[in-house]
Amino acid sequence: MSIASESLLVVFLFAVALLWPRAGRAEDLSIGAAVEAARKQAPEVLAAKQRVAAAEGRRDQAALFFRNNPEVEGDWLDDRLGTNEGERVIGASLSQELEIAGQPGLRGEVAERELEAARYDATSFERIYVGRVMETFYALLQAQRRAEVAAEILRLNETLVAASQRRLDAGDIPEVEHNLIVVEVERARADAASAEADVTRARAELNRLLGRPAATAVRAVGELPARPAPADGPPEIPERLDLRAAQAEAEARGAEVSLLRREVVPNPRLSLGWEMENRNLHVDRSGVAGPEQFDLDRFFLLRLSFPLPLFNRNQGAIREAAARQSSARLLATALEQTVSAEVVGAQAELSSSARRLELYAATLPRVDRNLDLLTRAFEAGQIDAPALLSARDRSFRTRLDYLDAQRGYAVARVALARALGRDPASLLQEAR
Question: Lower CB count within 10 Å: N or C terminus of the chain?
Fold first, then answer.
């Protein structure tokens, strides 16, 4: 092999080594990337978009001016198996059912309202789904932070065991205090394992929402809000797309009632045709047979027929459609009341979570400072182990509560955006 070929081979292998995915390496995923992935590949979001495509197909079908295709009919009459006098009749006709009461326009209106409802519903579902993805991302981010805190607790407790062992060997503390610290190490080790299990569960749920295998290695990258954001000003007016979808659905059902009533009007069937009749005139008026003589006649056919609405006048269908219309209107009214309640509840939850986050953000530095002072005091023999363990427990529990407050505030913002009908992803733009 030439030197040039060996050089190219080395460069190729080096590039493959750099680009080849490393086994066990977790993918760093930001919340923005998670939202985009959900919109592009989540099966439930894609299914909602297919429902819109189905509604578009129904709209295209309803746009046809002639609902039924024309019919072609042909006739051939021959006396070959009867008198066999050479007489025959040949005919052909074209028939078309005509809707004269405006049914095509009403059918198109029903389809348009259904398509409008499907579009609103699909967009609303996508926004709700994005909110769920964001909430799950925050849950994973919190679980990762809790696992880091649990690992830090374990590390510090193991360090404390070493310091306690030195004081025990020096006779500064009784064995019971040392054993108490050893027990705390084991408890911290169990807490760390539980925290890692929480990370695994949150990661699996996020992967499910993104349409990925549950075991996909993902690491949430980002920060939970450290402090509440300033108030945006006066309350926003809800613009809920699911409410618009419900209203469009009610309008569609109303148009369906009108359509069914119009369909009671008989649709005439118009037929245009041509007929040729070949008759044998060899029998005269007296009934005496004479020489064969054929007469060829041609006819133009125009036929108009109407069904009689004596029995079926869409009675049951109209009643059913009217009930569906009334139900759709009541559901839209109920949804309006639900939206109002959801907005009030979401605003109250956001206000409460903001106060809680502000409280823990102000308290945590003081708690950590006290813990640092008490740790130094224990190492200097100025306090006993129970006092230090109590202070350490308060410090780390406060840090975990702070993480809960951070996630609670972030989720409350998403819930308020969802209640107002906003795209929760818009919160990411505001944070930049």
Answer: C
Whole-number Å distance between alpha carbons of 239 and 368: 44
Under 8 Å between Cβ of 120 and 335: no
Give one DSSP letter per residue of 253-310, joined into a string: HHHHHHHHHHTTSPPPEEEEEEEEEEEE--B-TTS-B-S--EEEEEEEEEEEE----S
CB 361 within 8 A of CB 427: no
Write out the two tokens for 144.
Answer: 């990762």
Average pLDDT over residues 380-388: 70
CB-based contacts of 248: which residues, under 8 Å, 6+ apart?
Answer: 113, 114, 116, 117, 120
Phi first, then psi: give them for residue 295, nearest 5 degrees. Answer: -125, 120
Closest-CA residue to 173 (of 379, 391, 402): 379
Q: Which two tokens stand for residue 39?
A: 């919109």
Taking the C-alpha atoms of residue 113 and residue 125, their distance in angstroms, rounded to an integer, is 18
- For residue 425, give the 3-state DSSP assignment: coil
pTM: 0.80
Q: Where are the domains of the chain?
A: 26-64+98-268+306-425
Give 254's contacts (C-beta < 8 A, 6+ positions apart): 325
3-class secondary-structure state, position 185 = helix
Q: Domain 26-64+98-268+306-425, what fold?
A: Outer membrane efflux proteins (OEP) (1.20.1600)
